[in-house]
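pasting for ref. prot 1 ->
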Amino acid sequence: VQLQAYGGGLVQAGGSLRLSCKASGLNFSINTIAWYRQAPGTQRELVANISSSSMTNYEDSVKGRFTVSRDNVRRQVYLQMSSLRPEDTAVYYCKTLRFWGRGTLVTVSS
């Protein structure tokens, strides 16, 4: 199983960014995919997840700002992030089952 997150970068506060996670080596459509993030000096935290039936959950601080979606044909999960804040700065990872992808760095400048 391989997961690859990409789409990170530098953005100003209030801006938007879309992260993508491409998966291979598993039955993608039946698995819940989650986005986590880890800021320097902090523990990795769950940001959002999306189930096989596209039910979603969000961490409180991103509700209303982030949207997770999936495309089972392309085997990708997306995290649309809007109204970004400096505190959203972190390395973002996607995860399914026990498998983690390499992270992508999001930096939000004030």
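and prot 2 ->
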Amino acid sequence: QVQLVESGGGLVQAGGSLTLSCVPSGTITSIGTMAWYRDSPGKQRELVAHINNHNITTYADSVKDRVTIFRDNAKSAVFLQMNSLKPVDTAVYYCKIVSPLVSYWGKGTQVTVAS
């Protein structure tokens, strides 16, 4: 069973930057969309950013202009570069990779932004 391995989370001061990575432990064929979601305390899971297999991206209004999602198709990896981080960005971030038969989820990486 392929697992998604996330990394790059941590504790950062407000205004700082982090880049999250998500790499499969094995081969995933025919990858379509890739996305990052986050779970914040007391809130529903939020779609942060999404990129399709034509590299068309969409972003939540709450992170637009501060976050960039990009993918490395050769590695089947997806990344989330986050700048100008705010305390409200504190959450567990999950990556998702969609193939025709299966959607894969990572186990999450904690991002904590200190004020």
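The radius of gyration is 13 Å.
Residues 8 and 110 are 9 Å apart (CA to CA).
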